[in-house]
Amino acid sequence: METLYTAVATATHGREGRAVSSDGRLDVGLALPVEMGGNGEGTNPEQLFAAGYAACFASALGLVGRHAKVDLGDAAVTAEVGIGKEGEGYGLAVTLRVELPDTVDAATGRKLVEQAHQVCPYSNATRGNVPVELVVE
Predict the structure, then answer these.
(1) Which of 135, 106, 115 is nearest to 65 (CA)?
(2) Predicted local confidence at residue 112, as pLDDT
(3) Mind listing the pLDDT tens digit for each residue in 32-64?
(4) Which three-class secondary structure state does DSSP give residue 6?
(5) CA 87 distance to own-chain centroid
(6) Smallest Cα–Cα separation from 18: which of 53, 34, 42, 38?
(7) Would you tell me how many other CB atoms lie within 10 Å of the CB of residue 46?
(8) CA end-to-end span of the chain, whole Å?
(9) What are the two backbone dihedrals, phi and then psi, of residue 82, each rounded to the nearest 5 degrees?
(10) Strands (E), the chain
(11) Of the residues 40, 44, 108, 135, which has the maximum number of CB atoms within 10 A of its CB?
(12) Is 29:47 a contact under the CB 8 Å cutoff?
């Protein structure tokens, strides 16, 4: 792979600390969610992953839409990232909910979402490691 860009971030004190990008644009306090015994007064890695995956998948969807000459400008992607016990450790599961414009028929929309899933770097990184469900709405 030829690297086009490298993001750099540092986290301190794990899920109860802070995460900062090397350029300072991302600077967030971290906290365990209430559901995992925390106070929920900060963001958590699953939220950060969900935001990144949703944005990346939306870009991939736009790319395949442009190639297919289908206007997906009003599409929205919501990523739901779950965490749970898996054996001795923890695992993730993702649901991507894709809202397409009303002008896109169901079959075309499903095909474009499947194509985006093949193009998106997050989808490629999770494939075979994290279950990802695609929901087209």
Answers:
(1) 115
(2) 98
(3) 999 999 999 999 999 999 999 999 999 999 999
(4) coil
(5) 24
(6) 42
(7) 18
(8) 34
(9) -100, 150
(10) 9-12, 18-21, 27-29, 76-86, 89-99, 132-136
(11) 44
(12) no
Instruction: Report the C-alpha gap between 63 and 112 in whole angstroms.
Output: 10
- Strand order across the beta sheet in which 27-29 lies: 9-12, 18-21, 27-29
What is the model's pLDDT at position 77? 98
For residue 102 the two structure tokens come to 């009303």
Categorize the per-residue pLDDT at 115 as very low, low, confident or very high, splitting at 50, 70 and 90.
very high
Amino acid occupying residue 96: L
Contacts 24+ apart (CB under 8 A), 61-67: 61/98, 61/112, 61/113, 61/116, 63/116, 63/119, 64/112, 64/115, 64/116, 64/119, 65/112
